[in-house]
TrEMBL record:
It catalyses: 8-oxo-GTP + H2O = 8-oxo-GMP + diphosphate + H(+); 8-oxo-dGTP + H2O = 8-oxo-dGMP + diphosphate + H(+). This is 8-oxo-dGTP diphosphatase. The lineage of its organism: Bacteria, Pseudomonadati, Pseudomonadota, Gammaproteobacteria, Alteromonadales. Gene3D superfamilies: Nucleoside Triphosphate Pyrophosphohydrolase (3.90.79.10). PROSITE patterns: NUDIX. Keywords: DNA damage, DNA repair, DNA replication, Hydrolase, Magnesium, Metal-binding, Mutator protein.
Length: 141
């Protein structure tokens, strides 16, 4: 079974991107990730992402263009695995207070090239790679 999930690559004007750390006792606890969540059956990816950002961070942001997708299998406690298909969207930051209300205990703004892959959730690796490539592209400057 594949679970479709969306993630926001929230960019500030200074080029930093928001990452959030999952609570240590949550699934994939301790990993940093781009915020987002599951797409409900009746939602578009963009609507799901807007809803998830409101639920997890208490922010209202415009969901921008699609960036990239990845697929990753996570082992389940007790055996088996789940497969997520993660779809990443660029979201321009619009200054407002962030209030972590979901499965995260911390957040920070980082220059994309300084984010360590060994601390980032594996499904997010291709999204980070795509973001760095996009930001380094002469046509995106």
């Amino acid at each position: 079974m594949i679970i479709n999930v969306v993630a926001a690559l929230i960019l500030r004007n200074d080029g930093r991107v928001l990452i959030a750390r999952r609570h240590p006792d949550a699934a994939q606890g301790g990993w940093w990730e781009f915020p987002g969540g599951k797409i409900e059956p009746t939602e578009s990816p963009e609507a799901a992402l807007a809803r998830e950002l409101e639920e997890e961070l208490s922010v209202q942001l415009r969901v921008g263009p699609y960036l990239a997708s990845s697929e990753h299998r996570y082992p389940l406690t007790g055996g088996g695995e789940k497969c997520i298909r993660l779809h990443g969207y660029l979201c321009p930051w619009e200054a407002q207070p962030i209030n972590l209300t979901g499965s995260h205990d911390r957040y920070c703004w980082r220059a994309p090239e300084t984010i360590r892959m060994d601390t980032l959730a594996p499904a997010d690796h291709p999204l980070l790679t795509a973001l760095i490539a996009r930001l380094q592209s002469p046509s995106q400057r």
